[in-house]
């Protein structure tokens, strides 16, 4: 191999590397601009998992909220108190005061909704000082998980009433586990989210359907 050939190969490698770095940089800028509105579901759910969740020691739960934490998700601030519930600290028990506990998944949590517009806050506003409403909703929970959450962690807030906010996908069977995913699984999820993000740059036609919610209210002494 003569000197000119060697120089040509080295030059080609350098140009290819520079081009690759530039393309990656351009793609990064494009995706950051495209997702700067904080509305990309997959990215926001990843941030939710990173900033507000932790693996649970209880394999049935899988994951729990980090206590006393806060994150901006889908342009909405979600904060948790020391009990891992959304909202301000829970007030001490008062004689004759109703203590209402909301159980459920992301709909109960109020995903994408300002704190004052969540179901728990609206109910608190409606009932006034005669009641304390506690929001124990956690995203990516099913019925088995939020019932287990109450039985193992939420009984100590001494609710007088329990509202189970049941959504259709709460019947989904979730595998028991510590709540963490392997590097391979996380990487595949991120790649899939990247694919959906790039695909969403093209105009698509989507049909809408009406889904229903079902509420089960249990008034019980616990």
Walkthrough of the structure:
- With 222 residues, this protein is of the alpha/beta class.
- The chain has helices at residues 3-34, 41-52, 106-109, 119-127, 143-154, 183-199; strands at 53-55, 63-65, 70-73, 76-79, 98-103, 131-135, 161-167, 213-218.
- The protein is elongated, with a radius of gyration of 23 Å.
Average pLDDT level:
80
Fraction in helix = 25-40%
Distance between the termini: 84 Å
Q: What does the main sheet amount to?
A: 4 strands, mixed
- The total beta strand count reads 8
Low-confidence stretches: 178-183, 201-222
Radius of gyration: 23 Å
Query: Topology as H/E string?
Result: HHEEEEEHHEHEHE
Principal-axes shape call: elongated
* Adjacency order of strands in the biggest sheet: 6-5-7-8
Number of domain units:
2
Class of secondary structure makeup: alpha/beta
The total count of helices amounts to 6
- What is the chains' assembly state? single chain
Strand content: 15-25%
In terms of topology, how is this protein built?
Blueprint: H1 3-34, H2 41-52, E1 53-55, E2 63-65, E3 70-73, E4 76-79, E5 98-103, H3 106-109, H4 119-127, E6 131-135, H5 143-154, E7 161-167, H6 183-199, E8 213-218
Parallel strand pairs: 5-6, 5-7
Antiparallel strand pairs: 1-2, 3-4, 7-8
């Amino acid at each position: 191999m003569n000197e000119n050939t060697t120089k040509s190969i080295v030059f080609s490698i350098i140009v290819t590397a520079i081009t690759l770095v530039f393309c990656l940089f351009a793609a990064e800028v494009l995706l950051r601009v495209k997702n700067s509105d904080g509305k990309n579901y997959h990215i926001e759910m990843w941030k939710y998992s990173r900033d507000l969740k932790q693996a649970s020691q209880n394999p049935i739960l899988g994951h729990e909220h980090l206590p006393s934490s806060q994150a901006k998700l889908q342009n909405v601030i979600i904060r948790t108190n020391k009990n891992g519930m959304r909202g301000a600290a829970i007030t001490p028990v008062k004689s004759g005061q109703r203590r209402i506990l909301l159980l459920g998944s992301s709909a109960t949590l109020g995903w994408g909704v300002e704190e004052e517009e969540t179901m728990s806050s609206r109910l608190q506003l409606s009932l006034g000082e005669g009641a304390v409403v506690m929001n124990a909703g956690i995203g990516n929970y099913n019925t088995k998980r939020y019932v287990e959450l109450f039985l193992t962690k939420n009984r100590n807030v001494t609710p007088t009433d329990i509202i189970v906010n049941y959504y259709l996908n709460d019947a989904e069977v979730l595998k028991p586990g510590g709540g963490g995913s392997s590097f391979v699984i996380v990487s595949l999820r991120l790649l899939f989210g990247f694919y959906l993000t790039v695909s969403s740059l093209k105009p698509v036609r989507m049909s809408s359907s009406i889904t229903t919610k079902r509420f089960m209210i249990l008034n019980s002494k616990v």
